[in-house]
Amino acid sequence: MAVGVHKEATNSQPGLARTGLSDLSIRNLFIIPTIAFLACMNIFPLIWSLFLSFHEWRANLPDEKAVYVGIQHYRDILNDPAFWQTFSLTAQYVLYAVVGELVVGFGVALLLNREMKAKGVITTLLLLPMMMSPAVVGLFWKLLWNPGWGIVNPIFGLANDYAWLSDANRALWAVVITDIWMWAPFVMLLSLAGLSAIPKHLYEAAEIDRASWWFTFRNITLPLVTPLLLIAIIFRTMENFKQFDMIFTMTGGGPGTSTEVHSIRLYRMAFQSWDTGKSSAFAYILLIMVIGISMIYIKYLNKIKER
Amino acid sequence: MAAVVSKNNKLYNQLMVATVLVVTFIMLVPIYWIASTSFKSYNDSVSIPPTVFFEPEMTGVVKVFTKRTILRKDPSPAKLAKSAWYEKIIFKAGEKVLRASAFPSRLWNSIVICVVSTAIALMMGTFAAYAFSRFKIFGKDDWLFFILSQKMLPPMVVIIPIFLMYRTLGLIDSYSGMILIYTAMNLPFAVWLMKGFVDEIPIEYEEAAMIDGYTRFQAFWKIVLPQSVTGMAATSVFCFITAWNEFALALILAPRNVQTAPPFIPSQVGSGIPDWTAIAAGATIFLIPVMIFTFLLRKHLLRGVTFGAIRK
Fold first, then answer.
1. Complex confidence, ipTM
2. Does domain A77-306 have CATH number 3.20.20.70?
3. CB contact, 8 Å: B163 with chain A?
4. pLDDT band of B312, cuts 50, 70, 90
5. B294 contact residues in A (CB cutoff 8 A)
6. The pTM is what?
């Protein structure tokens, strides 16, 4: 392992008389367990599922021999219109949810960015949704969306037979709104950090120049908050792309396949149809997409950190 | 911009504060609704239109902790006098308590798995963070990237081979299996967050200690660890919450005896019209620790959700 070969860190201050473990061995003792453990729990399984993705095999029939099928599974999935439908559904969900979170979260942050009493308490109260279990949030929003005894319809003055989760056209919107409720606070938190870091004298200067609200917003606020907003966007895109819990407990992917984002489709393929080989291939296609998003994310995070 | 408050836009400012209060109120309605539903009677919970004002009762809370059956005939006065308070509540709802439900044991499973996995992740994470913070490591950024990338993997993607691996090793539905997977889930986070905290401790402290004859390990143990107690507390609360809230892995890897609370609560919905009072009570009890921890963590939330990148 590359960790072990670098010599620079060994007792770099030779003038000091020291006993005990050398820096090198401490460093290895401290790091190698973590790396080895993560490799066992994540890398090894991924290699296994890469192998499976080239085979026809069902996990509920473990005694049958795995048959090598080459890239057949990948070809089947990419040629299947249902896959592209799931993909477009997921893309829609991610897009609507992230845009909604951005608008609501940044909006609330602008409102909150002033001197007021109990600001800390209010901010923390607003942040509560994002700390909750997505599975439990999905479950109790199922109650709120109920056309009869839920509270969404009465609040918006809709009739008690205006269905949300059982209507194929509206279920996705219900999911998106729930997601915005839960994660707009995340965007708010990052935006607040950005807003409070803007030097006050910039606004004072703008006020002296009698700059309009819009001019100040566009030329001072927005450019200075943008780096943090971008972090929020990339992070939420990635997390929503992986979303499973909330949609699973709220709609289970239904009605029909109208909220079946690809995590749920993958779950159904792997643990209900037990189509292990094909679902491994599906998982790999998703993995490549997530790696793409997370590379952008981590690069960006490092850039922010260097400032 | 309103960040600068001058006297003549005081009214504007008050208007904005009022808007903030309204928004906060709207955001909290769902949480209030789930908490209040757990104190409603069954009829209040499914009334159309929904009841906002109601007489609170404990039926839902008792229901989530008990297995019940329909009461065939009213209990005799003597039996009624002997029965415990929770049995009386259930009699009133027209049911009879058979035995305790699985809910307490599911909560206990959650607590055991989350506490142990958090402790392990914190320990390994702190060690690794110290090494990454203080020593020169060949390809340090690449290693850190590798560690963080583990956090980015969608659970549904890794779960198929993990499931097979666990089945081969007999780890399905076991405490050790769940603890291992939650440790792996939280470890990258613990390393990153702790590295941020350790970076903030001046290296001079350790150097001074080592000049005084401490070994490197003693310096770490007696100087750095006590200095990073706040960081360790924040990190462990974050790890605990992440594990406490986790659903997908638990759903597949712990289907029966060591099932945790998140998969248990939705499993009560079943078919037909669910009893929302019981589900809401379960959800509320489950959410209380998270709410308390959120308030304790409020100063570190930003840092936590960005893996320690933004410190403020």
1. 0.88
2. no
3. yes
4. low
5. 124, 127-128, 131
6. 0.89
